[in-house]
Write a structure and sequence with these properties.
Blueprint (H helix, E strand, L loop, with lengths): L1 H10 L4 E5 L2 H11 L7 E3 H12 L4 E2 L2 H17 L13 H16 L4 H7 L5 H19 L2 E2 L4 H10 L11 E4 L7 H13 L2 E4 L14 H10 L18 H9 L26
Parallel strand pairs: 1-2, 1-5, 3-4, 5-6
Helix pairs in contact: 3-8, 4-5, 6-7, 8-9
Length: 280
C-alpha cells in the first residue's frame, strides 16, 4: 500500500488520501511515507470533520466537554418536568450522564435514527421509552442549534457526499485505509461512498488466510465479509518477518491459539524470560 501511495503521490499529490484510526497512527506514518507533503494523511474522523466544515459551514462541532454540558442540561430539564421519572434519584449523578452519553454514542455509531429507536421502544417498559425520549430530545437540540457531535459527524458527512459535496477532497482519486480492525456502520457507509467516487480504494485488515485463530480475528473477518458487497480484489500478505529470530516467529504463529493446540518450539532464539519479584 505504501508503495502504491508513493507512486500516486508522485504523479499527483492532491489525488491521494491516507486514512488511519488515530492521530498517533498518523504521526507514526509520516516517517514511513517519506514524501515532502504529509498533508495527505488524516484520521478517518479528521476527514469527516473537514468535509462537514467545508460544505456545511453553518454547522458547529461539539467538543466532548460541550456535549456533556448539553446532555446534563437536557437531563436536568426533563427530570424537572417529570419526563424521565423512571430515573428519579439518579438523573443528577455523573454516572447517569456517563450512561446516557454511552447510549447516544452507541446509537449513533450504529446509525440508528430517532424514529427507529422510538418505534422499537413503543411496547417496551418506561425505562426504554424514556431513553428513547432522551435520544429524541438530544437529536432535536442538535438540529435546532445546529450542532454535530463527534459520533454524529459521519452521518452528516455522508449526507453531504451523497449530494456531491466532497470538498476539500474533491480531487482525491485514491484512498488508502490502514490500521483498522473493524468499522462502525456510518464508516462503512462512507467507504461505500468513496468506492463510488475514487479510482482506487485500498483497505488493509488483519487476518489469516487459513483461519486458524477465528476468535482472535472475528471482527476483521466480519468486516471483510461486509466489504464484499464492494466487490474487492482480496490479497493475502504474509507478515514481514524474514529476519526475525525463530523463537519470535514461532510465538507469533502460536499466540492466541487454544491451549490444546499449542505446539512447543524447537528453537526459542529471541525469546527471553525475566523473573520479576513481587506482584505485577
Amino acid at each position: 500500500m505504501l508503495t502504491r501511495f508513493r507512486e500516486r503521490h508522485a504523479d499527483a499529490p492532491e489525488s491521494v488520501l491516507w486514512l488511519a484510526p488515530t492521530v498517533r497512527a498518523v504521526e507514526a506514518l509520516r516517517g514511513e511515507v517519506a514524501c515532502s507533503d504529509n498533508s495527505r494523511l488524516r484520521t478517518f474522523h479528521e476527514m469527516l470533520q473537514e468535509i462537514v466544515q467545508a460544505n456545511d459551514p453553518a454547522a458547529r462541532l461539539l467538543s466532548g466537554v460541550q456535549r456533556r454540558l448539553l446532555t446534563e442540561d437536557l437531563v436536568a430539564s426533563l427530570a424537572a418536568d417529570g419526563r424521565i421519572a423512571h430515573f428519579t434519584g439518579v438523573a443528577d449523578t455523573h454516572g447517569f450522564t456517563d450512561g446516557v452519553l454511552g447510549l447516544f454514542a452507541e446509537l449513533q455509531r450504529n446509525a440508528v435514527p430517532v424514529e427507529r429507536f422510538t418505534d422499537a421502544t413503543t411496547t417496551a417498559g418506561p425505562k426504554e421509552r424514556q431513553c428513547a425520549h432522551l435520544y429524541a430530545q438530544y437529536q432535536g437540540e442538535l438540529r435546532r442549534q445546529p450542532l454535530h457531535d463527534a459520533d454524529g459527524v459521519a452521518a452528516r458527512a455522508g449526507d453531504l457526499m451523497r449530494e456531491g459535496m466532497r470538498q476539500p477532497f474533491a480531487e482525491v482519486r485514491a484512498v488508502f485505509v490502514d490500521g483498522f480492525g473493524d468499522f462502525t456502520r456510518p464508516q462503512h457507509d462512507i467507504l461505500e461512498l468513496l468506492s463510488e467516487w475514487v479510482e482506487e480504494l485500498w483497505i488493509a485488515l488483519p487476518g489469516e488466510e487459513n483461519g486458524q485463530r477465528p476468535d482472535l480475528l472475528a471482527r476483521p473477518r466480519a468486516t471483510m465479509e461486509r466489504l464484499r458487497k464492494l466487490r474487492p480484489e482480496v490479497e493475502w500478505l504474509m507478515s514481514e518477518g524474514a529476519d526475525r529470530p525463530a523463537g519470535l516467529t514461532h510465538l507469533e504463529r502460536q499466540i492466541f491459539h487454544p491451549m490444546r493446540t499449542l505446539q512447543r518450539a524447537d528453537d526459542a532464539t529471541g525469546v527471553s524470560l525475566i523473573e520479576a519479584p513481587g506482584v505485577l
